[in-house]
Amino acid sequence: MVMRNTISDEQIGTLLKQNEDSAWEYLYDKYAPVMYGLIYNLTDDKVLAEKIFINAFLQLKEKQTLSGINSGVCYMLLRYTYAFAIKELMGNGIKPKILNPSEEVKLIHLFCIQCTSLTEVASILNITEKETKKRIRSEVL
Asked: How far apart are CA 110 and CA 123, in angstroms?
């Protein structure tokens, strides 16, 4: 049995392709805190953030948004979560809180808000793509 916090994105992708329910459990265990945290930072309202998070996660499964993903699940989820939360907030007449990136969250900011590619982020920060991946993983953890 694979420990939930050590399963790779590739393993999750394989399980999703095989339509295994366990894939959603692994995905939730691994990424729910990051998704919820991003939404909460846009709202500063725990109840609203939880509601949006639940809807975002359910839509991921219903629309099979991750069906073709083999790697890069983290990056895709950050972008998806941000876009979903903004749409939900604006649709309910709520202005999302502006995220001002500090030095510590600069990579997440670039991926979520500016929706730039890994190559673009590496270029902006003048680091390699490998280092960019390492730093974004560190920020997420």
From this structure: 12
